[in-house]
Known about the structure:
CATH architecture: 3-Layer(aba) Sandwich
CATH topology: Rossmann fold
Helix content: 25-40%
Distance between the termini: 30 Å
Low-confidence stretches: 9-14
Number of helices: 5
Amino acid sequence: MQQRILRPTRAARAGGRPPWRLLMESRAPGVDIANFDAFRDAGFDVTVCEGPDESPDCPLVRGEPCPLVDEADVVLFDLDDLPARWAVLDALRASRPALPVVVRAQGPAALGYPGCSTIRTTTSVNGQVSALRKAVMRWTTSA
Length: 143
């Protein structure tokens, strides 16, 4: 597991609201060195967790707290066909059912995952930012 926190730009904070804390949960190659400027410019603090791949070696799956999830305002979760990834998503939803989660997936199986917004892996960065904003806004207005 790896994390990196990127702070939003001054222009993004100028809107008078605190930054949203985004947890990017992804096994994508290079995610640990990706450029998250579009997310920062939109007002997100970005924390990256590469999570487990073959075995569900995740504190949530073991029934333990995860400080990354506990501190998040929204999660962008890359879902693939590995059973461990599904186990992590299930545990995440069980630990914080009200937390907004946007699932980014290739196939239609993940589309409509209960309690989550879903987008395809081919969604543009601007589309991802838009989906995250909508998810957070629904959460903040319903809370």
